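Bench log, entry 3. Co-assembly request; chain sequences pasted below exactly as received.
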Amino acid sequence: MAQENLVVCSTCGGVNRLPPGRNAGGAKCGKCGKRLFSGHPEDVNGRVFDHQITRSSIPVVVDIWAPWCGPCKMMAPAYEAATNELEPDVRLIKLNSDNEQAVSARLGIRSIPTMILFHGGREVARTSGAMTAGQIVRWVRDHLPIATA
Ligand code: ZN
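Structure output for the full assembly:
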């Protein structure tokens, strides 16, 4: 029997149960009513970040960035394009390291942009430096056992 997916809303951090086979791409958050997958990587606070990492049953990618970081800005459109391609199989979020310094320190971030892939609450992979949309998608898929194509 297929298991239902736990999908965390990037807007409010609410945990949503999605039955398998349902079109997750069009699903809305039961708590705040926003679309669970908007094709846009939300900038999350530490609380929503923790919910995403610990409660999501789908893989979660976080892009750690800062407003003063040139390569981060350069990569933003690529990250958005990768979000469009990988959702709803993978959750993509952003974390502003200036606003969330405690989370950034806990993750041991030394340079940005850094992307970390989490699955089942554990870090699966990490990479630093700007990438194109194609490189991001390939990097995520290379590290996942599940078929996201
Ligand atoms: Zn919500």
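The chain has one domain: 39-143. The two ends are 22 Å apart (CA to CA).
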